[in-house]
Amino acid sequence: MTNLAEGRPLPAPGPSALRLVWGRLSGNTAVAIGGALFLLVVLVAVLAPMLAPADPTAIAPANRLKPPSANYPFGTDAFGRDLLSRALHGARISLAVGIGAAVTSVAAGLLIGLAAGYFRLVDALVMRVMDGLMAIPNILLAIALVALSGATLTTVLVAITIPEIPRVVRLVRSIVLGVREEPYVEAAIASGTRLPLILWRHVAPNTVAPLIVQGTYVCASAILTEAILSFLGAGISPETPTWGNIIAEGRIYFQLAPTIILFPGLLLSVTVLSINMLGDGLRDTLDPKLVRRTG
User: Residue 141 falls within a domain, yes or no?
Assistant: First the structure.
């Protein structure tokens, strides 16, 4: 292609923003390792019914507290239930809670944060409520909510999500406070653009990258909180296989069968580590300040 006026070749179009981001992501070691581990955990959770060698709730008293063997790779618990099957099915609960809490808190935090950051009157009221929620430790607030409404998967998910919303709101609000003063937003207001369109087209896109990173941390925190609630007996019912329930049941028999705690604990640690590595890598890649500093 040539410039018709000067007869010189035009420069080749640069790579798209998406391609640049993908190039940085693929070159980030933390994203590669964390993403691969997390994808493996997701696949294990999805395929748990096919991978599990036995029914995770089937009780066999004759096989109680068996050590790891060919028939029971992770051993059995005090009720003779296969620990491998319970650990695989426990991944489904943990990921459902983690991903559900991340998506719900990010969506709610985005809407509330946009309103708080753009409207000063809303900001004064909303942020005082958010400050009050943040003053209560996450685990205590979650235990109180579960105690009031009962221990089911839905109530546990809600109890874990509510304490995470204020952090997302504060993040979105801080971004909106800076963006609303930008010339292109003022130009959109002056041109008569409707407010919902301004928020959707000019303000919300600036929150995408930080919210993706924040969502990974919320997911990891939610998985840990669910395990803590189950371990304390305030989470999902004990017969449901979750990593926290398995560890809670196994602590009594730790000296006789330490593998009851060891294997679900390792799975929990690897899952949270992979999500944190993924979040750190995404932050290093998507944060414009860090990109300029290291570029």
Answer: yes
